[in-house]
Amino acid sequence: MSIGHTLLGLLESGPRHGYDLKRAFDEKFGHDRPLHYGQVYSTMSRLLKHGLVEVDGIEAGGGPERKRYAITDAGITDVQRWLATPEKPEEYLQSTLYTKVVLALLTRRDAAEILDTQRAEHLRSMRILTDRKRKGDLADQLICDHALFHLEADLRWLELTAARLDKLSEAVTR
Amino acid sequence: MTTSHPGSLLTAHDLRKAYGPTHALDGAEFSIHSGEVVAIMGPSGSGKSTLLHCLAGIVPPDSGSITYDGRELTKMSDAQRSALRRSEFGFVFQFGQLVPELTCVENVALPLRLNGASRKDAERTALGWMERLEVDDLKAKRPGEVSGGQGQRVAVARALVTGPRLLFADEPTGALDSLNGERVMELLTDAARSTNAAVVLVTHEARVAAYSDREIVVRDGKSRDVERAI
Ligand SMILES: Nc1ncnc2c1ncn2[C@@H]1O[C@H](COP(=O)(O)OP(=O)(O)OP(=O)(O)O)[C@@H](O)[C@H]1O
Ligand SMILES: [Mg+2]
Q1: pLDDT tens, B121-180?
Q2: Is ligand 1 within 6 A of the CB of residue B222?
Q3: A155 within 8 A of B214, measured Cβ to Cβ
Q4: Which SUPFAM superfamilies does this entry report, sorted A to Z (chain A) (predicted)?
Q5: The CATH number of domain A3-84, selected from 3.40.50.720, 2.40.30.10, 3.40.1360.10, 1.10.10.10
Q6: Model pTM?
Q7: Which of A104, A117, A120, B184 is deepest in the core (most CB within 10 A)?
Q8: Rounded Cα gap, residues B218 and B48, in angstroms
């Protein structure tokens, strides 16, 4: 995720102090990984340098968290461009899982066992996410669902690969 | 290896079942504790439904043992087994299997009526379960007049109305979209947990299995019980 664009976007509703930006970010997007203050300041100084934000005021007491930032027109354009550009779908062709399975087959190890172990691990993660989703608010549900659908896709691949192990074994050991 | 498993509500050991040349079950192991939700997973045709039917005493295995609450299911008479199913087990299948001529509340009340409860008592208890599954407003409708997801919740209410100790669910969300399916799973597992009922859940969907406490995988009629292996 682009922290810079996210912080910029948060500034669109009005100027904010550094500590306020961090709090808003953590609350809305930082579920697992709250921002460090250091990240906020290095990001803000980069945005300042590029003219995407400007300092709108400084509270008494000093310290970088006392600076109040406002987004510039260039900043708004930048957020707009980021939102409008689709993300490149990740391709997982060289996934570790695939490599492990092929390597197991090449070395005559039990590839089915590897797939089974992985499936159990995936399901374990899915249980934790499902539990969190049940107890959480709508934001939690959306975040967990995203992760759940990805894990599910992996699991379907694991299933399909398990069903095709004999064929795959023939192909890679030929 | 012993056939009973301490603390288990239901244990199965070395189950075999053939349909002609097909070995639907070929040495399946299973166990479940009270209050536990266990998912039975595996590819299509691997023997999941056959395992569930054997565990529930609907289909007799060719060999192997099934112990429910200290009693050997395979040694009971048919009458004993169906009495057990009526009083201690609940069932939910992929398609609700509600009686089309009855209203939803009559459907939910039906198991209680069959056990001899008065209509008034049965429908009052039924309505309580319908409220928990958020379908009490459908009480006067017939199954043909409700959506698949609503019908499935009615079916879950019917399965739980007798307070079963063990709920068998075979692809209970198989005909639903993911939002409805997950809501049904949430309500089903909440309701089962609140009554300490165990749930045997057959599904090939990982997101549904994620509502379970643990999973048992069936492949070519074989399943390992991880708990037992430990
Ligand atoms: N009544 C029956 N008569 C003949 N063969 C049967 C019968 N029931 C099941 N089988 C066979 O036994 C095997 C296991 O079937 P089962 O229904 O248990 O699979 P399953 O894992 O539930 O599959 P699915 O995910 O498609 O529901 C299959 O090969 C099936 O064709
Ligand atoms: Mg089946």
Answers
A1: 999 999 999 999 999 999 999 999 999 889 999 999 999 999 999 999 999 988 888 888
A2: no
A3: no
A4: Winged helix' DNA-binding domain (SSF46785)
A5: 1.10.10.10
A6: 0.84
A7: B184
A8: 6
